[in-house]
Write a structure and sequence with these properties.
- By secondary structure, the protein is an alpha/beta fold.
- 56% of the residues lie in helices and 10% in strands.
- The chain has one domain.
- It has a 6-stranded mixed beta sheet, sandwiched between helices.
- It is globular.
């Protein structure tokens, strides 16, 4: 699996995409999970989108209209909190002995030097942080070059709609837990993340555009088989940390919505959290709930 693709998969798990001109709404990655008296809608999200990714499909709007409450990976209060970037930076500050240069080794350090020089990114600014933070910084910087806008992301879109409609909202995990996922990477995993970020920067937007096309087409099988399955095979520890462990932690919270509430809930999370045998869709199906995909375009 190419390095550039693995970083793209990681960011998809935390959700990102490339804007482009499209005539039709995206085919939604949307499932309805229900018991005898209520439902949880699961919507596969991207956190950064473009204006041409809207409007959304009719079944997505219908799910929002039917839901009395919404859930996101982070609550809107935490996701929009101005201190969140500071908390992430604090978690990334170096505590291990040695330097960033020593962590990376000669080849990767040289590549980082070349990138920062070419892009006006002060290398001394990164030297006080762990490698994962450098990788995340470069990945987000490159996505910004491609015109990605978090204000247009699917989660932000529904946070704003929920606020406008007076619908209650909640988070599946605290921001501290999401930061722990990143800060808890082994040094080898952190080096991989940085190398992948640099590789993607060198290759340009092709891989992210491919993922965006698959997401827009609602191609759940290819997203799983071509992307997540390879990450699971090649980097099982990283895959478990960013996907499986979090899904397992979220599952009881979704079951509680189904079992103790009469109201329906729309849950908006990164797309790959829903896919494959480790995804929330199959985990809830295995619990005996009725599961159906809501996708009129898929049935044509």
């Amino acid at each position: 699996m190419p390095l550039r693709r693995r970083l793209t998969v990681f960011l998809l798990l935390l959700a990102a995409a490339v804007p482009a001109a499209h005539a039709a709404p995206p085919v939604p990655l949307l499932w309805k999970v229900s018991d005898a008296d209520n439902a949880v809608y699961l919507l596969g999200s991207f956190h950064l989108l473009g204006k041409d990714d809207y409007p959304l499909a009719a079944e997505v709007d219908a799910a929002f209209a039917d839901a009395e409450a919404l859930m996101f990976e982070l609550s809107p209060q935490e996701a929009n909190a101005p201190q969140l970037p500071l908390q992430m930076a604090q978690a990334a500050r170096r505590t291990r002995p040695g330097s960033l240069q020593q962590d990376l080794g000669p080849a990767l350090w040289s590549r980082l030097q070349a990138y920062t020089a070419a892009n006006g990114l002060p290398l001394p600014m990164l030297e006080g942080y762990d490698p994962w933070f450098a990788g995340l910084t470069i990945g987000l910087l490159e996505m910004g070059k491609q015109g990605l806008d978090p204000k247009l992301g699917l989660d932000r879109h529904f946070m704003e709609r929920a606020a406008a409609g007076g619908k209650p909202v909640a988070g599946l995990e605290p921001a501290s837990e999401q930061i722990r996922v990143l800060a808890g990477m082994s040094l080898d995993e952190q080096r991989q993340m940085l190398a992948e970020a640099l590789e993607q920067a060198e290759d340009g937007p092709a891989q992210v555009r491919q993922l965006h096309t698959l997401w827009r087409s609602g191609d759940a099988a290819t997203l799983w088989n071509r992307m997540a399955l390879e990450m699971k095979r090649d980097y099982p520890a990283l895959y478990a940390r960013v996907n499986v462990d979090r899904n397992d932690a979220w599952l009881p919270k979704l079951q509680a919505r189904l079992e103790s509430r009469d109201d329906d809930t729309l849950v908006v999370v990164g797309a790959l959290h829903l896919l494959g045998p480790d995804g929330l869709v199959e985990k809830l199906r295995a619990k005996g709930y009725k599961v159906e995909r809501l996708c009129s375009a898929c049935r044509r």
